[in-house]
Design goal:
The protein is an alpha/beta fold and 334 residues long. 44% of the residues lie in helices and 9% in strands. It has one domain: TIM Barrel (Alpha-Beta Barrel), CATH 3.20.20. It has 13 helices and eight strands. Helix 7 runs parallel beside helix 9, helix 9 crosses helix 10 and helix 10 packs parallel to helix 11.
Length: 334
């Protein structure tokens, strides 16, 4: 069976409500990988019309933005990260919106947290302690982030160390040269080893799409990652010159759907890098809703990798309540 090219939108995968089994992966199917094709022009046209044909306004927009908050991996991956900064980030993850705004929106009694907090390995213990009892997962970037070029045993050791420190999710990076060379056997083998090292922690595979050259390579790498047992496929590290874009995300969403249709296993999707505004968040949520269905608007199947997005969403919610925009620096720091 060939993977459908990026033309008309087929029916959404049927995915049950409630906890989902993890993707166990499968043997590498090189024929399936080779069959994947992308019509770049069609993908770009489809991506360009997502926000022109659909809009979310007023109360519905506020509701969508509150939902977006629950799907943010609140992230700090800076060279000057400190324990104090991570504790502050965790406090924001546990209470992402000011209580007065939640009360004005009529949702003061609705539990609201971000989807996770994402940090470097060295700060995993700090995040675990700060989030204890909150239900907010800790995600750690690993495997030689962001380039993925350290020795394999070093990368595997990083994963095991982060899991031992209490990380619930591991964001691994692929060795991009394997994808660029079409060495899918090597990529699949490395990712299977990463998955084994993750144990019970969920594995989110970062493709570094800005460095993969073509949408076809992006789609093929996505399929191989899912065959290797990825729980999520993720666009970018946030460190590449080009990070998440709608055509790339559309391509990856179509591979997620093709994998679900063939195997019955739902895999999550995480765009990361460059998603900074509430308008951006709505565009990606519309893409998920149209391409994969309502079930992919829950944090177990969709996340934003972002650091500045939450502040702009809070500004938009304040505007919805008061009719006025507050300066970004007036929002509680994330």
């Amino acid at each position: 069976m060939s993977t459908p090219s990026l033309v008309p939108v087929p029916a959404h995968p049927v995915v049950p409500i409630g906890p989902l089994p993890r993707n166990p992966g499968m043997a590498l199917d090189l024929d399936w990988v080779a069959s994947f094709r992308v019509d770049r022009s069609a993908a770009e046209r489809r991506a360009a019309t997502l926000t022109t044909r659909r809009s979310v306004k007023r109360d519905a927009q506020a509701a969508w933005l509150l939902k977006a908050i629950t799907m943010i991996d609140l992230t700090t991956l800076a060279g000057d990260d400190t324990p104090a900064r991570v504790r502050r980030l965790c406090a924001k993850a546990k209470a992402p919106v000011r209580p007065d705004l939640l009360e004005a929106l009529g949702v003061a009694d609705v539990p609201l947290t971000t989807g996770a907090v994402c940090v470097y390995h060295a700060l995993v213990p700090t995040a675990v302690a700060a989030l204890a009892g909150s239900g907010v997962p800790v995600a750690a970037v690993s495997t030689g982030f962001p380039a993925g070029l350290t020795p394999l045993e070093t990368r595997l050791g990083e994963i095991r160390a982060s899991v031992a420190a209490g990380a619930d999710e591991i964001d691994v990076v692929i060795h991009r040269a394997q994808a660029l060379a079409g060495d899918w056997t090597a990529l699949h083998a490395e990712l299977r080893a990463f998955r084994e090292a993750c144990g019970s922690a969920h594995m989110k595979v970062i493709l570094g799409t800005g460095e993969l050259g073509t949408l076809r390579t992006v789609g093929r790498a996505s399929l191989v990652a899912m065959m290797a047992g990825a729980d999520f496929v993720k666009t970018s590290t946030g460190k590449e010159p080009t990070n998440a874009t709608l055509p790339v995300s559309l391509t990856m969403a179509r591979t997620v759907r093709a994998y679900a249709e063939r195997t019955g296993h739902a895999v999550g999707f995480k765009p990361a890098g460059g998603i900074r505004t509430a308008k951006d968040a709505l565009a990606w949520m519309i893409l998920m809703r149209e391409e994969l269905g309502r079930r992919w608007l829950e944090p177990d199947l969709f996340r934003f990798g972002a650091s500045g997005l939450l502040g702009d969403i809070e500004r938009q919610l304040e505007h919805h309540v008061t009719g006025r925009y507050a300066a970004l620096h007036k929002q509680p720091l994330a």
